[in-house]
Amino acid sequence: xxxxxxxxxxxxxxxxxxxxxxxxxxxxxxxxxxxxxxxxxxxxxxxxxxxxxxxxxxxxxxxxxxxxxxxxxxxxxxxxxxxxxxxxxxxxxxxxxxxxxxxxxxxxxxxxxxxxxxxxxxxxxxxxxxxxxxxxxxxxxxxxxxxxxxxxxxxxxxxxxxxxxxxxxxxxxxxxxxxxxxxxxxxxxxxxxxxxxxxxxxxxxxxxxxxxxxxxxxxxxxxxxxxx
Length: 228
Hints:
15 strands; about 10% helix; elongated
């Protein structure tokens, strides 16, 4: 997370000495379309409410491997400072490991998800600050998670559900020139998934399990932005 954000601000600081923005004297109107593309890190929460054989299993939690993905955002500015933005992440593979009372189990399962979001972003300073270089924004909307596949480990016949949930975000464009620059942002999605499967409770004995997994991921992203 810190590496991604630090990289963005290093790029932004370097851009301050670039003369391109100040020397760009064109008055041609900008297209309302823009694109951002870069890298993202996902940090899931460890919430889990689990039942085994119909009985609550206390003290459970989940941990995940480091999750990185590519990110593309396509936006359209329909009012000064107000844009609709579609965000799509490259489907990452996620390893799921037991935590808390499940820690001795180790790897529970793995899954490949498709993260996406549709938000409305608001720039309080449509023309930016410091000559248009600094263009902060906030946003809110909906995040949708698609489960493409699951792979068994300790949990057999594992299944996870898709989810649609609210999302909020904040970030900034750092414009090197009139139509391109860098961006850094953070998103918070309130996603949950319903997990089912079979869990070994004794040699050769499987019990049905069911759980509500509170992913609630933080997404930290940085990359380049281009305004047409």
